[in-house]
From TrEMBL:
It catalyses: ATP + protein L-histidine = ADP + protein N-phospho-L-histidine. Pfam families: HATPase_c (PF02518), HisKA (PF00512). This is histidine kinase. Residues 11-38 form a coiled coil.
Amino acid sequence: MGTSSTDPKTIKTDSDSVDALRAMVKQLQKENSDLSISLETSTQLADLFAQQLLNRSTELEQRNLEVAAFARTVAHDLKNPLGGIMSVISILQAECKVGQPMSIDFANRLQWLDQGAKQLHNIIQDLLLLAGVSQKGQVEIYPLDMHSIVQQVIHERLAHLLEEYQGTIEIPEQLAFANGYAPWVEGIWANYLSNGLKYGGRPPHLVLGSNPLKTGQIRFWVKDNGNGIPLELQSQLFTPFTRLPTRNWVEGTGLGLSIVQQIVKKLGGTVGVESGVSEGSLFYFTLPAVVLS
C-alpha cells in the first residue's frame, strides 16, 4: 500500500485562509451592527425633527389665527365710533352750507377731518378683509356675475372717491362670469378701483375689461391713465406694507394689494400688473372660468 503525505505549507495556507475569512465575517458583522445603529439613530432624529417642525407649524398657525382675531376685534371696535364721527362731520358740513358762511380755515379743517375719517374707514375695511382671509380655510366657490359686483362696489364703496377726484369709470356692457367668493371678490374690485382713482391721471379715467385665457381662467383688469410704474418697482407692488415713492402721495397702509394677492391665490388665480412709464397701468387678476355642464 502506498502512503500519502500532506505538505505542511498547504495546511498552514488553508488555516490562514480560514482565519482571514473569519476576521472578514466579524468585521462585516461589526459594520452591519454599526450601520443598524446609525440607521436607527438617523430615523429617531428624523422623527424628532419632524415632530418639532409639526409643533412649530401648529404654533405658527395658532399665532396667525390669534393675530387675525385681534385685527378683526380692533377693526370692529373702531368701526362703531368712527361711524358716529363721520355722521357728525356730515351734519356739520350740511349745516354750514345752509347757515352762515364758514371761514376758509374752518372749511379746510372740516375737510381734513372728513378725509381722515374716510381714510381710517378704509384701513378698517382692509383689516376686516385681511382677518377674514386669514381665518377662513375654505370658502364656498360659486359662479359670480362680475358686472353686478362691480356696479355694487362702485355704488356702495367708491362714490366719495369719484366725487373727490372727479373720476370716471368705463364699464363694458358685459363682464365674464367666473367662479369665486363674492365678499372677497368685492374687496379685489374695491382695491383696484380705489387705487386707480387715487393714483391715476388727473382727472382719473379707468377702463375695465375681461378676457378668457387658454388656461381655463378669466382675466379681469382695470386700466388707469396715470404716469405708469417703472419696471424695477413693479415687483414690490404686492409686498405687504410697501408704498412706492414714485406714485402720487396718498395716505394708506400698503396692505391692499398684498391682501388682493392672498385672496386670489386662495381662489385659485393669479395677480399681476402691466405698466410702462407715461403709459398708465393695467392691474389684473384671474379666476377659474365657469364650466357649463
